[in-house]
Each structure stands twice: as C-alpha cells, then as structure tokens.
Design brief:
This protein is mostly helical and 492 residues long. It is 52% helix and 4% strand. It has helices at residues 3-28, 40-56, 66-73, 93-118, 127-148, 173-190, 208-225, 231-243, 271-278, 288-296, 302-305, 322-325, 337-340, 351-363, 370-388, 395-401, 406-416, 421-431, 459-464, 466-475, and strands at residues 77-79, 151-152, 170-171, 258-260, 284-286, 306-307, 334-335, 346-349. α2 (40-56) packs antiparallel against α4 (93-118). It starts with a helix and ends in a 17-residue tail after the last helix.
C-alpha cells in the first residue's frame, strides 16, 4: 500500500461513518426547545394572556387602551397629570397602532391557528379547542369593530403562504356583527361537555360548560347591541337562547364570569398592578362623576372601586389641565386594591352585565316579560354586581334607585362595568347613557370637545392598506379618519 492509499483509507472510513449517520442526523440536530409545530394548548395560553392583558390594561405608556381611553372617556377615572394622554380626548398614534397590531397578530392570528389545527380536517381534531378559540376570536373581533368601526374581517387572517392576503378588504360593522353572532352559535354547538379535554386554558381551566355559557352570554350582548338597528333579527336570537337554557346555557352566577385569574408573578400579574404599583405610577384617581354618583346612592361599591383620602371620597373632574389637576393629589380618592392587586382578575364579562342587558331588552320589548321581568333582571344585575365585589345589597338601595327605567338600567350597567372602560364606552356611544353632568369650567378638551366615538385607523393601514382603509372610512359613514364618526349601532 503506497503513501497515497494510506491517506485515502482513513478519509474513506470517515465518509462511511458520516454516511451511516445521516439517517439520525436531523434528529440529533433538532432542538427540543425550538419546535416547528406548536400544540393548541400552548397557543391557547399565549393568546388568552395576550388578548385579555391587552384589553384590560397594557403596561406600556401610550398603549393603555382601557386605562387611558375607555376608563377616562367614560369618567370612571380621571388624570391628575398628563391630561393629554387621554383625559382631554387626545389619542396618540401609538394607542391605535399597537393595539391594532396586537389584537390582530397576537390574538386573532393565534386563535385562528388553533382552529386550523383542531378542525375536523386539521392535524389534531378537537371540537372543544376549536369552540373555545372561536369564542375568543369572536370576542376580539367584536372589540376591534366596536373600537374602529369597519375593519378587515372576511379576508382577515385568512391568507396562506401560497396565497397571502396583504391588503384585506374592510367589511361593514353590520356584516361583521352578522358573522360574529353566527360564529357564537357555531361555537356553542362545537363545545361539548362530553367531548375531549382541553389544556392550557387559563380562563376556565378546561370547564367546557362555562365556555358554552360565555359563548351564549356574549351572543346576548351583541344581539342587544344591534337591536335598535336590526330588531327582528336580534329578537329572534334572544328568543332562541332564552327558550332553551339547556341547549344555550347562560351565566348563572359570578362563578361563570369571564375573568382572567392573575397571579403575583410576572408576567401573569394584573396589568393595573404592573403599571400602578410595580412601576409606581400614580397618574389616575377616581373621576368626580363616578364618586358623586355613588355617594348620592350611598353605594357601597365605592369602597371597593376606590380608597378614600383623609377619611372621605372626592373625585377629580375630567379634562383638567395638569396645573389644576395636580392640586387634587392630596384629596382625591385613589383606585382601590381590588383593582390594583397583583392577583386582581382581568374581567371580560360578568353575570351582572348579562342581567342588566336582559333588563334593557325586556324594557325595549326585545324579550318577553315587560316591566315585571325588567325589574327582576335589573335587581338581579345590581345584586350580582355587589356580590362580585364581596358586598351585600340592601333593600333600601333599591328604594333609593327607584322605579326601573332604561336610563337607570344603563346607569347601573355603567357602574357595574367599572374597570371595563372599553365596554362602558361602547355602551355610552350606543345609547348616550348615562347622561354625564356639565363639564367643569376649567376643563380643556381636544377633538373640538367631542367625546371620542371611535379610534382612527393606525398609520400602518394608511401606509400598507390605504385603498381599503379609505373604503373603511366610507363604510363608517364618515369622510375623515377621525374620532368623531358615530358607529353603526349608535341609536342617535
């Protein structure tokens, strides 16, 4: 054997060794910590936390949609500094951009992925995962359309790698509502208490009956919201649900509330805690409007919503310039620990809200029972709102509230929705109720003094989907991408 063959032999052996190992090479070099496919249980956990956290708070400045828009505009809270961050009716571009992007990319996209995976023809069929994801997809779409009006819906999150949709068309709010109400009915049918288990469910811990209750209760909310515009359809939906509580179960107690249970540990802590306690921001106090209303009713919920200063409750008028607002720091009630604790729940929908919605529907003639049924639902809604916060309502409270009227029902819903500023804002934009007191003479408001009726589309849509965005403005019935255009379900 010559010197050349001696050199070739080891190389040949090495090549043989490598060739022999190629069958397991891919497996050896695949990290178990970087999976190429993610199971629905992981997607569900992520999507739930991202979407509910985003709705409830958002810990980043200029992105706190609920705290710095809804809760201020609806006069649950008021600013003691930085009035231009929401309290004076201004809205930053970041508020629109980051919430739009997060709800579409972090929430809707992942709920859609779960549905694709767990569909009958998917890689891991499971009707209960599919149903839960469909409920949450519907909820997020309802948030987006109630905030912006016309949005990409029928073509949203539908593109594939082979057939991408980079510029989805905008759909009318009326068409979106029709789709959402239909989807919730499908979700209720998909969800089965005798079906397969689901994991990663940080909202209901795999309790499918509660998912069904949430689906149907949300369907009641949306049917009632459009009732003035589509009365026949809404009445048919409400009748169908109420006529068969076995097939269409609703919330029956506060145990059914759709509320994310938080923990003291990041990132699973309550978003208000992150902003107001851990980051030490003291920019918010209770609004004078809320405090005065609850004091007039001798309403014990005030002791939960806020903490008195110097033994008494006082609120800040909304829209005050900083130089005046800061003078209230020494006297204005702060937000109560029930909402700022690390483990305080982040609430989506409650039994109290459901009952107050049904009270309104009874008064409007959209469900049977008339005034008697409205009174029953009204008092149940108030009672359960008190119970939600560990309180007991007294008979004298109902005496003080007086006879049931539509205005009083909406007043009580506004109170019960404390913390859920976006929902309260939507209800006010729909009905014009509650009627707020005259503005403080020292207040200074932007937006021509008009309490915002929608958020403008973000700059990303103007840059990347301009033609469809302009069509969306037209579909809303407006001529400008502004904060003044009233949305489809507005009653006046």
């Amino acid at each position: 054997m010559n010197r050349l063959s001696l050199k070739i032999l080891p190389l040949t052996v090495v090549l043989l060794v490598f060739v022999g190992c190629t069958k397991s090479f891919d497996g050896m070099n695949t990290s178990p910590n970087s999976p190429t496919a993610i199971g629905p249980q992981y997607l569900l956990t992520y999507a739930l936390e991202q979407s509910i956290d985003r709705y409830w708070g958002g810990r980043t400045r200029f992105e706190r949609l609920n705290i710095d828009a809804g809760e201020l505009w609806i006069q649950h809270l008021a600013r003691n500094i930085y009035s231009n961050e929401g309290d004076n009716y201004e809205a930053s571009q970041a508020l629109m951009l980051n919430n739009w992007r997060s709800f579409f990319n972090d929430a809707l996209l992942n709920y859609q992925r779960i549905m694709t995976i767990t569909d009958e023809k998917g890689t891991a069929p499971n009707a209960n995962y599919y149903g839960a994801a469909l409920v949450m997809r519907t909820w997020v779409f309802s948030l987006l359309t109630d905030i912006f009006g016309a949005i990409p819906y029928s073509e949203a999150i539908k593109g594939t790698a082979a057939e991408p949709i980079y510029t989805p068309k905008y759909d009318t709010q009326e068409a979106i509502y029709a789709g959402l109400l239909a989807d919730l009915k499908v979700a209720n049918e998909k969800l089965s208490t005798t079906g397969p288990a689901i994991n990663g469910d940080i909202l209901y811990n795999g309790n499918i009956l509660r998912w069904k209750k949430f689906a149907n209760s949300l369907r009641v909310r949306l049917a009632n919201r459009q009732a003035a515009k589509k009365p026949a359809e809404s009445r048919a939906i409400l009748k169908e649900i109420l006529a068969d509580p076995v097939k269409f179960p609703l919330f029956t107690s506060n145990d059914d509330n759709a509320a994310l249970k938080c923990t003291p540990v990041l990132p699973s802590n309550n978003e208000w805690n992150q902003v107001m306690i851990q980051e030490g921001r003291t920019d918010w106090n209770l609004s004078k409007t809320l405090v005065d209303k609850l004091l007039a009713l001798d309403d014990a919920r005030l002791t939960v919503f806020g903490t008195p200063v110097r033994g008494k409750f006082e609120g800040i008028p909304n829209g005050l310039p900083d130089a005046i607002a800061t003078t209230f720091l020494a006297t204005a009630a702060t937000i109560g620990p029930a909402f700022t604790r690390a483990d305080a729940p982040e609430v989506i929908m409650t039994f109290a809200e459901l009952n107050l919605t049904l009270a309104e529907a009874a008064l409007d003639g959209d469900i049977d029972g008339g005034a008697a049924k409205a009174k029953e639902y009204f008092e149940k809604g108030i009672t359960e709102s008190f119970k939600q916060h560990g309180l007991t309502v007294t008979a004298t409270y109902f005496d003080k509230v007086g006879p049931v009227t539509r205005e009083k029902v909406l007043d009580q819903k506004w109170i019960a929705l404390f913390g859920q500023g976006l929902e309260a804002w939507t209800e006010w934009r729909r009905t014009g109720l509650p009627v707020f007191p005259p503005r403080d003479s020292r207040a200074i408001f932007a937006n021509d003094g008009v309490l915002p009726t929608r958020l403008p589309y973000p700059g990303s849509e103007e840059s990347l989907n301009n033609a469809n965005m302009k069509e969306g403005i037209k579909l809303n019935g407006g001529t400008a991408n502004d904060l003044k255009t009233k949305l489809w379900w507005a009653e006046k």
